[in-house]
From TrEMBL:
Active site: C142 (acyl-thioester intermediate), H235 (proton acceptor), E237
Gene that produces this protein: metA
Protein name: Homoserine O-acetyltransferase
Record site feature (Important for substrate specificity), residues: S192
Source organism of this protein record: Psychrobacillus mangrovi
Keyword Cytoplasm included in the entry's annotation: yes
InterPro entries for the chain: Class_I_gatase-like (IPR029062), HST_MetA (IPR005697), MetA_family (IPR033752)
Length: 302
C-alpha cells in the first residue's frame, strides 16, 4: 500500500524513480480505507534528505500511511528554504489538538549541548509530553532517542573520547520481541554521534528493555516496558552514502575526524561504500508500523 504525501513534495519524484508506491491527496481521498496518520518531527538540518529516507521506509509496507511533517516554531532551520517549510511543514501549535497513530522524532546535530541549553528544548518537552496521550507509538532516532531517555526516564547522555562513527555490529538480546521479529542475531547499523547513554542505567531501569547492544558502539535499540516509546541511538534510515557525505563535510571544515569504521571498502574513502543494513532497516520500520501502530491504534480516536 502507498504513502500519501503532498503532491509537490520534492521527494515524490525520487520515490517514484525508486518504485516506492506513493499517492497524492487527490487519489487518496477516493479510497475507503482507514490510513495510518504518522507525524514526523524533523530536526535534521538537511530536511529534504531526511524526508526521502523516512518516506522510503514508510512506503514499504502493506499499510496506507498519511504523513505530516512538523518543525519547531522556536527555531527555524538554516539549511532548507522558508518556502519549503511553509509549504510542507506544520508546527506543534497547529496540530496539538489532533491524535496520531505514530510519530517519528529524528536526530539533530546538537548533542554537544546540554538538553536544557537547546533553544527549542521547552517546545520539545511539550511535544514529548503531548505524545503520551495523543500518539499511539513514538519512534525516536539518535539525539531524539537520547532526548526521550532523558525526558521520560531521567537517563542522561555522556561525551565520548572521540566520535562513534561508522557501521557497527549489534547483537540482539531478545529476538522474540515483535519490533525485531525476523532480525538476524547479529546485524549492522550506522552510528554517528559524539555522545552515548549508560548501558547499566538502561538495563537497571525496569521501565525499559534493551533489545540490542554493540561492543564497540554501545546501546543501540531500547523499547519502553509499555511499548509506547522506541529509542534507536543510531541511524538505520541512512542511505549508503550518508556517512561518506558527513565525513567529507567534516574534512572540508577542517574538523579532526577518523575515517568511519567498517564502512569504506579497505577503509579507502575514495571507494564506494555498500549498504549492509538496508534489509534490517526496512524490517524494523515494517514491524513498528504493523505491531506497534496498526495493531494498537484505535480505529477512531476519542
Amino acid at each position: 500500500m502507498p504513502i500519501k504525501i503532498p503532491k509537490q513534495l520534492p521527494a515524490a519524484e525520487l520515490l517514484k524513480k525508486e518504485k516506492i508506491f506513493i499517492m497524492d491527496e487527490e487519489r487518496a481521498v477516493a479510497q475507503d480505507i482507514r490510513p495510518l496518520n504518522i507525524i514526523i518531527l524533523n530536526l535534521m538540518p538537511e530536511k529534504e534528505k531526511t524526508e526521502l529516507q523516512l518516506l522510503r521506509l514508510l512506503g514499504n509496507t502493506p499499510l496506507q500511511v498519511n504523513v505530516t511533517f512538523m518543525n519547531t516554531a522556536t527555531y527555524e532551520s538554516k539549511n532548507v528554504s522558508k518556502t519549503h517549510l511553509d509549504t510542507f511543514y506544520t508546527t506543534f501549535e497547529e496540530v496539538k489538538h489532533r491524535k496520531y497513530d505514530g510519530m517519528i522524532i529524528t536526530g539533530a546535530p546538537i548533542e554537544h549541548l546540554k538538553f536544557e541549553d537547546v533553544n527549542y528544548w521547552s517546545e520539545m518537552t511539550e511535544i514529548m509530553d503531548w505524545s503520551k496521550t495523543n500518539v499511539t507509538s513514538v519512534l525516536h532516532i539518535c539525539w531524539g532517542a537520547q532526548a526521550a531517555l532523558y525526558h521520560h526516564y531521567g537517563i542522561g547522555k555522556f561525551e565520548l573520547s572521540k566520535k562513534c562513527f561508522g557501521v557497527f555490529s549489534h547483537r540482539l538480546s531478545d529476538p522474540t520481541v515483535n519490533l525485531v521479529r525476523g532480525f538476524n542475531d547479529e546485524f549492522y547499523a550506522p552510528v554517528s554521534r559524539y555522545t552515548s547513554v549508560s548501558y547499566d542505567e538502561i538495563i537497571n531501569d525496569t521501565r525499559l528493555n534493551l533489545l540490542s547492544n554493540s561492543k564497540e558502539a554501545g546501546v543501540f535499540l531500547v523499547i519502553s516496558e509499555d511499548e509506547k516509546h522506541i529509542m534507536i541511538t543510531g541511524h538505520l534510515e541512512y542511505d549508503a552514502t550518508t556517512l561518506a557525505e558527513e565525513y567529507a563535510r567534516d574534512v572540508n571544515k577542517g574538523i579532526e575526524i577518523d575515517v568511519p569504521e567498517n564502512y569504506f571498502p579497505n577503509d579507502n574513502p575514495s571507494r564506494q561504500p555498500l549498504n549492509s543494513w538496508r534489509s534490517h532497516t526496512h524490517l524494523l520500520f515494517y514491524n513498528w508500523l504493523n505491531y506497534y501502530v496498526y495493531q494498537e491504534t484505535p480505529y477512531e480516536w476519542e
